[in-house]
Specification:
Blueprint (H helix, E strand, L loop, with lengths): L3 E6 L4 H4 L13 H16 L6 E4 L3 H13 L7 E3 L16 H8 L1 H9 L11 H21 L3 E6 L1 H12 L3 H5 L9 E5 L5 E6 L3
Parallel strand pairs: 1-4, 2-3, 2-4
Antiparallel strand pairs: 1-5, 5-6
Helix pairs in contact: 2-3, 4-5, 6-7
């Protein structure tokens, strides 16, 4: 067995709370989101986990989640690499819109297709497949080699950028990943084999 990879979706954001499409819009955590992030850190500390390095996106909600987790495990000064490759999916023209208003404008079926299909892009935005096309090379180049060296790596990112990673790690199809939900502030712990396959997966949702 090789190293450990911990994935955490950021805590609830202010726009999650308001039911708005967020994407690359840079909004902060809600009060509940701050608490979710702190709780994620407490759960990881209880497991005795400490990290060799952390990765997060270029967006403040993921960075704040990362900061809360590192403070909770006593590693506030840990080296953290921020990169927009780990950003949330870009929702294009949907960004900033209330999801109910979007359904009223374009119809339930069309909005569901934009939100949940693997390859369909919203106007001016990215599909989940597009998101994966920037997440996967970054993972292979920057994150996976560290895990294979035996390091314990934290990735604090977003629902769709993490779904792209989970798709590869769990060997899911495009259809299967569209039905996969990643909860806010819930750590997912992967332990990898030396050939990069998954030895074990644990979701700390209890």
């Amino acid at each position: 067995m090789s190293g450990t990879l911990v994935l955490v979706r950021h805590g609830q954001s202010e726009w999650n709370l308001k039911n708005l499409f967020t994407g690359w819009r840079d909004v902060g955590l809600s009060e509940k989101g701050h608490e979710e992030a702190r709780e994620a850190g407490r759960k990881l500390k209880e497991r005795g986990l400490s990290f060799d390095i952390a990765f997060t996106s270029a967006l403040v909600r993921a960075q704040a989640t990362n900061d809360h987790i590192l403070r909770a495990v006593g590693q506030a000064d840990l080296k953290t690499i921020r990169d927009q490759a780990l950003n949330e999916r870009d929702y294009g023209e949907l960004s900033g819109l209330n999801k109910d208003d979007a359904r009223a404008k374009w119809g339930e079926e069309q909005v569901h297709l934009w939100r949940r299909s693997y390859e369909t892009r919203p106007p001016g935005g990215e599909s989940l497949k597009d998101t994966g096309a920037r997440v996967w090379p970054y993972y292979l180049r920057e994150i996976l080699p560290r895990v294979l060296r035996g390091e314990t790596v934290l990735v604090s990112a977003h629902g769709n950028s993490l779904r792209a990673l989970v798709m590869v790690l769990d060997g899911l199809s495009g259809e299967e990943i569209t039905k996969t939900e990643i909860a806010t502030g819930v750590p997912i712990i992967y332990r990898l084999n030396s050939d990069s396959t998954v030895a074990s997966k644990e979701i700390l949702d209890g």
